[in-house]
Amino acid sequence: MKPTLLVLAAGMGSRYGGLKQMDGLGPNGETIIDYSIFDAVQAGFGKVVYIVREYFLEQFKEAVARKYSKVKCIDGSPLEFVFVTQELDKIPARFLPLNPERQKPWGTAHAMLMAADVIKEPFVVINGDDFYGRESFRIAADWCRAHEGSKNVYGIVGFELDHTLSESGGVSRGICHYDAMQRLTDVVEHLNIVKGADGVVTGDNSATGEHVILRGSDLCSMNMWCFTPDYFEKSAVIFEDFLEQNSQELKKEYYIPYAVDCMIRGGDARCDVLSTPAHWFGVTYKEDRPAVVEKFAQLAREGVYPTPLYQ
To answer: Hey, what domains does the chain have and what are their CATH numbers?
Structure first.
């Protein structure tokens, strides 16, 4: 069984100030997604599903055709690509028309629902603008292969908080809480997370408003999830409940942690917490870009990745 990689690439990156998904950061203009695809193929993935916006769909397709036309899976078969689009009005018809002032789509869990008809196997979800590291893809792929045919069991790849901070400003991270069996109990969003000059990591608990000290070893979500395909049906039901309350809202969004939390609390699913030793990095802020460019250059110098990444 070859798992599928679902890439969330519909966001504009407002804090960064541009379309991060298309930004060339590697030594030969490679994007972060290029590295994720490379690592996923090495880990045994067989299909990539992109979630994009309609207005840059053709640009994305052209880039994929140009870069990945010769990429093979580890068994020698061609790597399959599928594109789906997320738009504001792609919701059940009974909730239309929407508030005409709303501009943003409905969030990451809504984006995932766009792929319900094209994914029938265990799959992994990632952000298109985050670098997760090859160890993370191996861990996620192994989980998927171990859960072929399973239902009601999902996974989250947790990164040590210390491995996810930005030197350019505070970040928001969902801290994973889990039980003795390494099963997720909830994900608590913390805002303005920074490491002080004294090495102490602090942030603001969004649930309580408290300014708290965090441990660098705390596992946090970087939106790398593992799912079996039964997820889609359950998520669609929760999304309708969400829209019952929020269909006329201007900014409320349906996020993956919320959907998973509803399933856990309702007894409909469990979620394994998988720990990765990898260091995340990404371009949360424009100021992050030079450091990310240097990290990719260093990985190339060390031979971790070929350069150019794709021949």
So the answer is: 4-153+221-301 (3.90.550.10)
